[in-house]
Amino acid sequence: MVFKPQRFHDEKPVVELEHDNQESLETAVARQLAISQGIDASRISVTASGTTIFLSGSLLDEGEIDRAIEIVLAVPGVEKITHDLQVG
User: Fold this and answer.
1) pLDDT at residue 52 above 90?
2) What angle separates helix 62-73 from helix 22-35, to the nearest 10 degrees?
3) Domain residue spans in the chain?
4) Terminal-to-terminal C-alpha distance of the chain
5) pTM of the predicted model, to two decimals?
6) How far apart are CA 67 and CA 1, in angstroms?
7) Which PROSITE patterns does this UniProt record tie to the protein (predicted)?
8) Which of 18, 28, 68, 87 is deepest in the core (most CB within 10 A)?
């Protein structure tokens, strides 16, 4: 059986063209948060929109929030962070 790439009238789907790299950037950010020391990322949600990362959830203290932002900014491809992280 031969699988061919998904096409729509010999063109890539529009969704693929508009959002080609968001999943890998979200995955890279979430992975980096999960493996980094000094932060419990189990209650953080990561969403990408272009090169902007949106973080939501809660952390133990302000120090962890600062550390999370620092970690995310170090991920290649991230240009801006918006967050709604809460202490608690």
Assistant:
1) yes
2) 130
3) 16-87
4) 53
5) 0.73
6) 49
7) BON
8) 68
Q: Among positive and negative, which fits the CA dihedral 18, 47, 26, 82?
A: positive
- Comparing 18 with 64, the larger pLDDT belongs to 64
What residues form DSSP beta bridges with 46? Answer: 55
Mean of per-residue pLDDT scores for the chain: 85
HEC sequence for 18-81: HCCCHHHHHHHHHHHHHHCCCCCHHHEEEEEECCEEEEEEEECCHHHHHHHHHHHHCCCCCCEE
Contact 55, 41 (CB under 8 A): no
- pLDDT tens digits, 13-41: 555 555 555 678 999 999 999 999 889 99
Look up residue 63 and give its two tokens.
């120090």
pLDDT for 38: 85
